[in-house]
Amino acid sequence: MLFCSCATDHVQTPREGTRGWSCVCGLVSVTALSAPLKTTLCHCEDCRKWTGSVGQMAIWYRREDVLCSGQLLEFKSGSRVRKSCAKCHSHILTSLPRAGLVEVCVGSAGISISLSAHFFYVTPLIDFGDEVPKFVDFPASLGGSGVRAESWDLHPDVTQAFHGKCLCGSVIVAVSGEPEMTAFCHCLECQKWTGSSGHFAVIFDEALVQIAGDLKTTSDGRRNCAKCLACIASTHCAKTPGLLQICGGILNSPPRLQGHWNYGQRVLSVRDGMAKFKDSPAEFGGSGAVLGEEAAPYVVTIQRKDEDLGLELSFSDRKCRVLKVRRRSLIHEWNQSCASDSMVCIYDRLISINGMMATIREEREQLGRATGKIVLIFAKFRYFE
């Protein structure tokens, strides 16, 4: 443990134009004495594995313009020194001693920001759909090639056992089953904990998860590697016991995202067509309220295969919603075969299957078995930014 002061020659007294923020527990505080140089989101493997999310989202300052007080733990990674709160393990900043720069994690700021650039935007976990410059590595001014990413693919969504490790490799995660849900949580605590724009949470039945290695666990269930302080996992919530959120950024091949939670607290908008929830779906302890409006219905036709399609429905007053689509079947096939304007979001409201509405379990199981294809009619939701 150490006490960090990034600018010991400054008196730590706020002045007009300064900006201040803190970690989840409040032990560590950071004050910036000048305007930021830039704000970036780095999607490199190291930043993913440290944050456990899409990558480190950072506000850049000169080292002498940042004051940091409180007890920190640090981990050296190449030319960078990554620092986290010693108590709640929130990611605070990354120091670049040779360059004389500090990257303050946006998550600890709790403010809306204007992004300057994406780094290592080759196979992002989320395609943000913005107009911000995207580089295959770094801009030339930072020692990179300066080559812009003209096209990119989302990370591969392959069928395999889930496994991964932290930044230093001391903690290894293995999962023997399919996730219940994959969501990106934009709440302020998740921003602060990960040091990213939010928490890329892959939610599993806890009994399916094996974690090997030394962990530091907070009273609210967040788990970090004891050595590099990478975010590993967190307890879901009291309303849904037995579920564990694995940080998708540490997995070698995380499943595709299925929705955004606590979207009203976002620091960065995402234009990906996924459901944007006020908090979280009802089956995961939230209100289920969606930040969007219902638009015109559309039709999706898929060919019936021998495998289980993995479609689970919830019925109420002859209306139903798609609760879960296992990635090895239905949603994977749709993403591969449908036009972008017809791509199904799993929380669009299902109107009918093969022209019928199933009201009981037995009817639901029989739908589609007598024909070689399944026709699904959905009410499309237009999600607010």
TrEMBL record:
GO terms for molecular function: carbon-sulfur lyase activity; metal ion binding. Pfam families: GFA. It comes from the Eukaryota. The keyword Lyase applies. Residues 18-153, 162-262 form the CENP-V/GFA domain. Keywords: Lyase, Metal-binding, Zinc. The keyword Nucleus does not apply. InterPro entries: CENP-V/GFA (IPR006913), Mss4-like_sf (IPR011057). Belongs to the Gfa family. This is CENP-V/GFA domain-containing protein. It comes from Symbiodinium microadriaticum (Dinoflagellate).
